[in-house]
Amino acid sequence: MFLPLTAKCNKHFSPYGSFAFYYIYPIFICSQVHLLGRLHHRNLVNLVGYCAEKGQHMLIYVYMSKGSLASHLYDEKYEPLSWDFRIYIALDVARGLEYLHDGAVPPVIHRDIKSSNILLDQSMRARVADFGLSREEMVSKHASNIRGTFGYLDPEYISTRAFTKKSDVYSFGVLLFELIAGRNPQQGLMEYVELAAMNTEGKVGWEEIVDSRLDGKFDMQELNDMAALAYKCINRVPKKRPSMRDIVQVLSRIPKMRHSRKHHRQSLSSIANDIAIDVDQPDSHTPVSEHKREESMDSTADTFEV
């Protein structure tokens, strides 16, 4: 079976669709192969192979046909992402980062979480990409130069030059707010968030920052839960930020609670229908149709647990 691939190598950008080429230094590719060769998870853009021959240095990845999260948030050629998609994308990214922090041995810190580094596959499952700045946790946490993307950088990292797992958590919090608001840090996202937080106390009332392209089609409780979590992630004190494992647990509960509420409403409706039938037709019996749960964006959403 043919597997579409994306490659990074020392050639110019390719016009051939499935391959994107960028210059990679030989030393860099060796460090990337060493790091990426042991990372395998459904929410990471996994390395398929590499080539170093006759001056050609290439990294080969599975091709992500739906492009980046950033393009779906900001490119007008795409329809606005629904609220459901945004929740599942957030959960996918959280699971990928949880694997890097708690599943990889030794743990890996990504250091450049942002919407353009989140890629979507054919089924719209999100995967964390671009490990160019990633480091194993055991490597010195101190850096002479600040590396990363403005607006997503942990303030503690900027002031101390030390990056930790909680630096990734901060960037993830910014990404959550980006999913909620449909704007990025370069568009004043965090100033927008801080103004809203003055009125919400970080808990409820976040509807004023919601992406207008959602046209009001979102669940208020889910919004407040997601925004409250994001606000904890961007706490100025790293120790007060949740771990990625805690974040996955919180985000996992959002669709579960939605299904529970939907089932409860369906049950109440079924009971009301039964009562009406009993009153109108006391001698007849009409079976109640079985409730079928709506499919999420991915029919395997309930099997995402790692």
UniProtKB/TrEMBL annotation:
Residue numbers annotated as active site: 112 (proton acceptor)
Keyword terms: ATP-binding, Kinase, Magnesium, Membrane, Metal-binding, Nucleotide-binding, Serine/threonine-protein kinase, Transferase, Transmembrane, Transmembrane helix
Transmembrane segments: 20-37
GO molecular function, one term: protein serine/threonine kinase activity
Domain of life assignment: Eukaryota
Protein kinase domain span: 1-257
One Pfam family in the UniProt entry: PK_Tyr_Ser-Thr
Region (Disordered): 280-306
Binding site for Mg(2+): 117, 130
The name this protein goes by in its record: Protein kinase domain-containing protein
Organism: Vitis rotundifolia (Muscadine grape)
